[in-house]
Structure formats: structure tokens, C-alpha cells
Design a protein that fits this description.
single chain, alpha+beta, Rossmann fold, Elongation Factor Tu (Ef-tu), domain 3, Alpha-Beta Plaits, 8-stranded antiparallel sheet, 7-stranded mixed sheet, disordered N terminus, EFTu-like_2, hydrolase, nucleotide-binding, Ribosome-releasing factor 2, mitochondrial
Length: 777
């Protein structure tokens, strides 16, 4: 990551000895004054080996490496599979840190928030840029906890490839499935790294089988472990038939030897490796026609003669087509197997030019970028992470935000290195940049160079659409797909320490919402309190903690509440008339409509218009009608929760001339409220997918406890010596479950939760809930 600039910043005396083209000199010296303040020297960062002294790459190759040499990758996994430890080792071996950080010691590069270091978990994804053997790697370490699924989703959206990390003793776990589905959705090629091969109970074969069975993926075994659990010594490179052994006396795992497998010294291992290589060649030949022709033509007699380079090229093509996933193994904590993983990232995962993005043809060489994350820095203001798809970004340049339809100016451009940043003069397509100065850009916004560039791209897209007979609006075609923000399932009130601090709290929440789109903030219309809506207990707890630490506000949280929904069981008709005279103007609206339940699930109401409603009336008032419908469905008659799974048909609408659209909305809204009160209402509660991993000894008490919580057990699987209980449980019953589970199992069990859907409550539970809410019980 801009190694020579880092040298300038850390050691200005070396500048005189560097031979740099004159055209860059003035730019560098002016950058130097700024850079010094941006590279804090609290942690030992190192420049790349071979870049010290006179052996310096050109400034251009460091700022803008060739696109074919760029890799944008993410590290994704279930919680506690070893993502952050793997990232830390990658940074150490690539030469960007001089000491190995540890999650348990709280000194890793990518977990830089106080909450992350205290809890030993990743909360925010962190971007790191480094070089490895001539390749520029932009790596993003993502969270594994279910409460921060959106954080993973928005990062996967801008990546070209991913490394899925697995705990070799557990194989595929609950959150692994979730992130794998997200990667499928964004069509991301990936490789698998079976971590923790040194852990008691680690099993290479079990982990590979779970990838095949649960993820429905085809694993390509590129490595075999030498020993397992405490006997794990190294790995075998199946492609090259070599063994990689790490020096047991080495503290940092940098020293390892690569030896060819020989008949004399390792007859058993050689036999096993030859069989694995032949199976790999057959597997790849089945998936890649070009490689199949080569194997059948030249090497059909003896697979041993297939060159490693040809096999690696074929594996690259198969990985890119997402037909199979290469599998590697190692132990990040014990510093084994990380360097071959880095080689595999550069060899098998795609460069930006190998991914096909349909929208690029419309922009030609104009700027097109996607803002995928916003951070708030106390000194610099909002920092916006961007993936550049085409064109170039420079500081002091104006950009146009298509989503917000506004033009802003980038004041500075930085390369991200977790919480350290280095300023640069420009950045080209395929890179991930950090921009300063954008006040209105939010997650998921599409950025272009100017409004005229957007219009030109829209015209090209329009012509293309006409050829294909597609009927999308111009704006829709130009917008890069953002991320779907899941609906929050928990909410609680938040109070400032005094009324005078309310504006400060509002500002803090506004900043946090821009950073985290899954956090919703609303105002309770009855009590006037501020309500926080989040993805889980941990999510809300972290937000509360951040308000205290980052904004210095001692806020008070109300009890956690579950986000219920409401629906109706039978169709109802209602009529309403609103007649008001304001000043000398009479506003008169009469509405007749029908509300009926839907078979399929829909969060927003489905709006239909009867044939009797004339098109002329609808033309001027459709927006007002729909606003009235949506506002009425925000609060149901039972709990004041949003109403879903309903269809609304407008049968009649009579509007007096001169009636304002606000009055039309008010009348429609009141009419729907009247209809909802007349109908038989049903409360819907969030149902969670639950996966509990527990030892056999504690299985019975866990099952008994889940039965009391209205749990529905689907199956009990065996995972090594443990049992995995899979089922559904209502969210209301699972509050504070982690404490109870620890008590029941002496701290040996773990669990994972994920929202499944909303289901109807039974009448008895519903009446209990309503009584409790109304204060009768």
C-alpha cells in the first residue's frame, strides 16, 4: 500500500536518496507535509521487503497498479472461525506489520474499535491494502456475528473474490451458510481455508464433506494436511507434489521449507498425494472442456506428466465460473499455511477485469463508483469507502451522486489501512478508495463524474434496452444495485441524560445511521420518545456503548422490545367522508375501500384500484392516496405495530374541486384505520432459526429449556463429539438466552440465531401479550 510514500512519511531523510521522475517531485513534496500527520507511528508498520533504499517502484505503479494485478477480496466466516487472526497473519507475511497481533491481546490491525478489542469480535468490516509478490490486494475483514450480517453484505457487493474461513473441527456452521448464500447472490468466486487444523477434534475430511453436503459446492483439494490436531506439522501441495513444513523453532512462521515428495523418504504420503492429484485432474477436466481436451490428448497415459501451470490455469477458470471451490488448510494462530493461501488468492481469484459488469459498457471510460460504507472521523468528518468500477478519482474533483441527485466535491483521497490512512494524488478503476469531504453520500449510492456523464450513459443504456426490448426506467438501469437492508427485530427507547442533550443525541444517532443502515431511529408519536430499532441485543448494546465513548453521552436504554407485526383475518369494507373548510376553501373527500388478507407474504400493502374509479381522478391524486395507505399501515389497531400481508382495493373516490392532496391522504388513512378496527386482527411474531452446538452430556437440559420457550426442534445433527440442535424459536422467548445457556451447560455450548420469518401467534399467547401491553397483567 503505497510503500514509498509510507517511507517518506516515516523517514523523511531518505527522500534525498530516491531517484524519482521530476514530474512527480513537486506533487510528492506537497503531499509529504500532509502525509506526516496521517501515519501515526504508534504501531510498527513496515515497507515491503525489497523496497528500501534505491530499489523503489515507480510512484505510478504503486498508486495505480495494472488492473490484472489487483485483487479485491473479503474474508468471511462464522463467528470465531479465525477471520481476524488470518488477516493479521496475512499483513505480517506481506510485510506491512512488524509484529504479530492477537485477537485475545486486543492488538490486531483490523479490529481497531474499543468494543472489538474488549469483546474479541469483529463488529465493523475493515479495509486493508497491501502488496504480495507484485500483486495489489485490497482485503476486507468482515464480522461473523449474525447481528452484523448487513456489514458482510455491503462489503461482498464490491468484492471480486472471497476467502471463506472454516473451523476444521466444526466444518460448516450456521453463519457460514448465511455468508455463503450472500456470496452466491453477488456471484462471487471464492476459495476455502480450513483453519484451526491444530485444534483438538480437527478433521480435514469431515470439514470437506460438510462443504460438499451443506453448501452443495464441489471442493477441489489443492492441499492435504500433514497430521491433524496436535500432530499438525504442515501441508502437502497436491498440484506440485511438494510438502511444506514449518520450522517448529520459528516464532512467527516465516521460515518454512518446500521439499518435493520422494519415494524413498515419504512413500505413503507420495501415494496419497498422487491419488489426490489424479482425482483433482479428473474433477477439473469434468468441469473445464479446454483442460479436458489437453489431458485426453497429450497426457491420457500418465496424469503425472500434466504440468502444474496448466492445472493451475484450469483451476483459475473453474473458480471464476463458480463451478467449484479450491480448498486449502492450515492454522493461522500457529502461523502455518497462510503464505500458500496468499499465493492461492493471487493465482485463483479474479482480477477486476475478469468480472463481467454489464453497466460498464454504458460508462465507457467515465467515472463509475459505488459508495459501500461510511465512517465518521472526528477530525475529517465523514469518510466514504468507494469501489471504482471505471474511470479515475482525483482529490478536489466534483462528483455527481445519482441516488441523491446532488453534486459534491472530494477534498482528499486516501488509501485505507484499517484505522491508518495514506493520502494519494489519484486512483484508477478496480481499486477501493477512501474519500474525504462527501457530506450527503450514503451506503449504496452510485457515483459518477457529472450529471452529463450520467445522462450520456442513460442514453447508451436506453439504446441497448430498446434492442433487448427491456422497459426499465433510465435511472434504474444506471444505479448499481445497493444492498437490501433487513427489517430490524428488536427495539428499545433511548433517553439523553437531560433535555438539553437531546440535539447531541440526535446528531450522534444521525451519524451512526449513516454508518450503519441496519440501525433505524424513529420517534414514538404517543410518548415523544426516541426509539432505537436494531438487528439484535448485541447490536443495540454496541450502539449504546459507541454513543457513550465516541460522543460522550450517558444515555439510558429502556427495556428491549420485540418488533411484532399485525395482519387481518377477514376482508372488510369501510367508507369515510372528510369535510373541512379552511379559510374560504372547502375540502371534501369521500372514500370507499376494501381491506383483505393476502395469501403471500408482503411487508408493504398491495394497492389495487377498482374499474369504477376513473383514470382522470387517479392521475392527480394517486400519490396522495398511496401516501395515506402507507401511513395508515404503519400502526395497527392492536399493538400499534406495522400492518403487513394485506391488499387494499379502492372502490370509490369523490373529490370536491380545490381539495388539497393532504386532505385526500388524511381521509384515505382514516378510512383504512376504520376498516382495520372492524376486522379480526392477528399479531405476527418474529420466528428465529436457532442452532445450538452442545456436548452430549448437556443435550437433555438444553432440549427441555427450548421446549419451555415454545421452541420447535427440526433435527439434531452429530458434529464430531458434539450435538447440533436445529430448530425454530420465537424471538420473544430467546431474550437473554446466552446467559441461560451458559448456566445450563457450564459455558460449553454456543448458539447462533437468524430471522426466519413472521408467524401468527396462537390466540392464548396473543391475549397474554395484549394484556401485558395494556398493563392488566
Amino acid at each position: 500500500m503505497l510503500s514509498n510514500l509510507r517511507i517518506f512519511a516515516v523517514n523523511p531523510r531518505k527522500i534525498s536518496s530516491l531517484h524519482i521522475n521530476n514530474m512527480y517531485c513537486s506533487r510528492i513534496t506537497s503531499s509529504l507535509k500532509r502525509i506526516k500527520t496521517h501515519v501515526p507511528l504508534g504501531r510498527n508498520y513496515s515497507s515491503l521487503p525489497g523496497l528500501i533504499g534505491n530499489d523503489i517502484k515507480s510512484l505510478h505503479s504503486i498508486i495505480s497498479p495494472p488492473v490484472a494485478k489487483i485483487r479485491n477480496i473479503g474474508i468471511m466466516a462464522h463467528i470465531d472461525a479465525g477471520k481476524t487472526t488470518t488477516t493479521e497473519r496475512i499483513l505480517y507475511y506481506s510485510g506491512y506489520t512488524r509484529s504479530l497481533g492477537d485477537v485475545d491481546d486486543g492488538d490486531t490491525v483490523t479490529d481497531f474499535m474499543a468494543q472489538e478489542r474488549e469483546r474479541g469480535i469483529t463488529i465493523q468490516s475493515a479495509a486493508v491494502t497491501f502488496d504480495w509478490k507484485g500483486y495489489r490486494v485490497n482485503l476486507i475483514d468482515t464480522p461473523g456475528h449474525v447481528d452484523f450480517t448487513l456489514e458482510v453484505e455491503r462489503c461482498l457487493r464490491v468484492l471480486d473474490g472471497a476467502v471463506a474461513v472454516f473451523d476444521a473441527s466444526a466444518g460448516v456452521e450456521a453463519q457460514t451458510l448465511t455468508v455463503w448464500r450472500q456470496a452466491d447472490k453477488h456471484q462471487i468466486p471464492r476459495i476455502c481455508f480450513l483453519n484451526k487444523m491444530d485444534k483438538t477434534g480437527a478433521s480435514f475430511n469431515y470439514a470437506v464433506e460438510s462443504i460438499r453436503e451443506k453448501l452443495k459446492a464441489k471442493p477441489l483439494l489443492l492441499q492435504l494436511p500433514i497430521g491433524e490436531a496436535k500432530n499438525f506439522k504442515g501441508v502437502v501441495d497436491v498440484v506440485r507434489k511438494e510438502k511444506l513444513l514449518w520450522n517448529s523453532n520459528s516464532d512467527d512462521g516465516k521460515d518454512f521449507e518446500r521439499k518435493p515428495l520422494l519415494e524413498m523418504s515419504d512413500p505413503e504420503l507420495l501415494k496419497e498425494t498422487t491419488e489426490a492429484r489424479n482425482a483433482l485432474i479428473e474433477q477439473v477436466a469434468d468441469l473445464d472442456d479446454e483442460f479436458a481436451d489437453l489431458v485426453l490428448g497429450e497426457f491420457s497415459e500418465n496424469f503425472d506428466l500434466v504440468p502444474a501451470e496448466k492445472l493451475q490455469t484450469a483451476i483459475h477458470r473453474v473458480t471464476l465460473a463458480r463451478m467449484a471451490v479450491p480448498v486449502l488448510c492450515g492454522s493461522a494462530l500457529k502461523n502455518k499455511g497462510v503464505q500458500p493461501l496468499l499465493d492461492a488468492v493471487t493465482m485463483y481469484l479474479p482480477s477486476p477485469e475478469e468480472r463481467n459488469y454489464e453497466f460498464l459498457q454504458w460508462y465507457k471510460d467515465d467515472l463509475c463508483a459505488l459508495a459501500f460504507k461510511v465512517l465518521h472521523d472526528k477530525q475529517r468528518g465523514p469518510l466514504v469507502f468507494m469501489r471504482i468500477y471505471s474511470g479515475m478519482i482525483k482529490p478536489q474533483s466534483a462528483i455527481h451522486n445519482i441516488n441523491g441527485n446532488c453534486t459534491e466535491r472530494i477534498s482528499r483521497l486516501l488509501l485505507p489501512f484499517a484505522d491508518q490512512h495514506v493520502e494519494i494524488p489519484s486512483l484508477t478503476a478496480g481499486n477501493i478508495a477512501l474519500t474525504v469531504g462527501l457530506k450527503h453520500t450514503a451506503t449504496g449510492d452510485t457515483i459518477v463524474s457529472s450529471k452529463s456523464s450520467a445522462l450520456a450513459a442513460a442514453r447508451r443504456a436506453g439504446r441497448e434496452g430498446e434492442k433487448k426490448h427491456e422497459q426499465n426506467s433510465e435511472a434504474e438501469r444506471l444505479l448499481l444495485a445497493g444492498v437490501e437492508i433487513p427489517e430490524p427485530v428488536f427495539f428499545c427507547t433511548i433517553e439523553p441524560p437531560s433535555v438539553a442533550k437531546q440535539p447531541d443525541l440526535d446528531h450522534a444517532l444521525k451519524c451512526l445511521q449513516r454508518e450503519d443502515p441496519s440501525l433505524k431511529v424513529k420517534l414514538d408519536p404517543d410518548s415523544g420518545q426516541t426509539v432505537l430499532c436494531g438487528m439484535g441485543e448485541l447490536h443495540i448494546e454496541i450502539i449504546h456503548d459507541r454513543i457513550k465513548r465516541e460522543y460522550g453521552l450517558e444515555t439510558y436504554l429502556g427495556p428491549l422490545q420485540v418488533a411484532y407485526r399485525e395482519t387481518i383475518l377477514n376482508p372488510v369494507r369501510a367508507t369515510d367522508t372528510l369535510d373541512r373548510t379552511l379559510g374560504d376553501k372547502r375540502h371534501l373527500v369521500t372514500v370507499e375501500l376494501e381491506v383483505k388478507p393476502m395469501e403471500t407474504s408482503s411487508v408493504t400493502p398491495v394497492i389495487e384500484y377498482a374499474e369504477s374509479v376513473s383514470e382522470d381522478i387517479l392521475k392527480g391524486s394517486r400519490e396522495a392516496i398511496e401516501n395515506g395507505i402507507h401511513s395508515a399501515c404503519l400502526q395497527g389497531p392492536l399493538l400499534g405495530s406495522p400492518v403487513q400481508d394485506v391488499a387494499i382495493t379502492l372502490h370509490s373516490l369523490i373529490i370536491h374541486p380545490g381539495t388539497s392532496s393532504t386532505m385526500i391522504s388524511a381521509c384515505v388513512s382514516r378510512c383504512i384505520q376504520k376498516a382495520l378496527k372492524k376486522a379480526d386482527n392477528q399479531v405476527l411474531e418474529p420466528l428465529m432459526n436457532l442452532e445450538v452446538t452442545v456436548t452430549r452430556d448437556y443435550l437433555s437440559p438444553v432440549l427441555a429449556d427450548l421446549a419451555q420457550r415454545r421452541g420447535n426442534i427440526q433435527e439434531i445433527q452429530t458434529r464430531q463429539d458434539n450435538r447440533v440442535v436445529i430448530g425454530f424459536v420465537p424471538l420473544a422467548e430467546i431474550m437473554g438466552y446466552s446467559t441461560v445457556l451458559r448456566t445450563l451447560t457450564s459455558g460449553s455450548a454456543t448458539f447462533a440465531l437468524e430471522l426466519s420469518n413472521y408467524q401468527a401467534m396462537n390466540p392464548q399467547d396473543q391475549s397474554t401479550l395484549l394484556s401485558r401491553r395494556s398493563g392488566l397483567t
